[in-house]
């Protein structure tokens, strides 16, 4: 057989660890299999052309919330022009019903973790056996029995893209908005075997590691060994972990303090600081411990932090969300990732639909449209708020300038007024260049808030030129008192975004 494993990643820099797991565990069928990765921005017809070029017998496609609509179209085209090709789907978007995107033309759908299931399916197809459309004939694999996927990252991947890795699967928590809450048990990979794989990646030149574990710091012994692995390396790498905010034992804290600037990034899931809302969505939180740990990470480490907040949770008003943002802004100077609530199939979030009049889009990413606390028009404003927040605040491009929007300490109100103004000014939330955004921010601060133009220009120049090699927007030259020379060597950090956030 000729087998193709494929998916559409959200960005070129991303890689699919799932495809490589399937490939690593195909045993005798591996030599007949090829991995082809695309992005959601690629032309659909050209994707299908490349998939069908060598007349494959089977095409396996990884389906996610960001590529579900494109995959549906790809299946439709394949079945029209090459109906004999067997299309197999897998991934989180097809592992839980109801399906809100049409995948009916696929031949088989693998439910859940697919390493063993996909091999068995291919073997059954090879032997001509009758197979159900839905493949869910066994439980989760024993992790120690799986072949590791890491040797199947190409040299090009290692040099140019993020290398996704994992030390565990599953999550012990039951947050109702999250698919990980379905996995009640955390399973760990054999740590020594895993570190050996990481060393091989390192020896090949890998320097950008992103762990996909939902609870990296849950297992203290494993976490310390992984941290020790990276602490034993030279600078010039970036490693990303998703961590539980309440649980930072001393041994882990001590190791995090040893990481140099630009080498470690922590994603800290908060979602809400409202105790009643957290209880309502089954999210157990120790708010006192969260604040203590956030302040520790902010004040005593050089870790780059991402802290998450969600808009639209059942029963949470805008006033409550504003309080969340203001409190987080007081605790930390890090990136605050603002997301809009999504209702994913398989979660229990729908139990709140009637009580809080939760209405969601039926199209990916299934975002909330309105609820009893936030009507549709206001929710639209908040979606624009999150987009501008990412461009202006989380980007780190205006690290000091942006604080002029809330000199009274009310972050939410200050930025809400700016986001409303900039939308009325630009009529868009996309394709806003750094130069254009600089002009908007300068105009708002100096003409609406009446700050001195020289003062704002000087702060803005310092922000923008923090990254070597950047060209300064021309309009600032008229007002700034000092224009630093351009270092054409550029910035050599792996994570330029992280570098922009350093003081």
From TrEMBL:
One of its GO terms (molecular function) is catalytic activity. Gene3D superfamilies: Cobalamin-binding domain, tm_1862 like domain. It comes from the Bacteria. The keyword Cell division does not apply. GO terms for cellular component: cytosol. Its cofactor is [4Fe-4S] cluster. This is DUF4080 domain-containing protein.
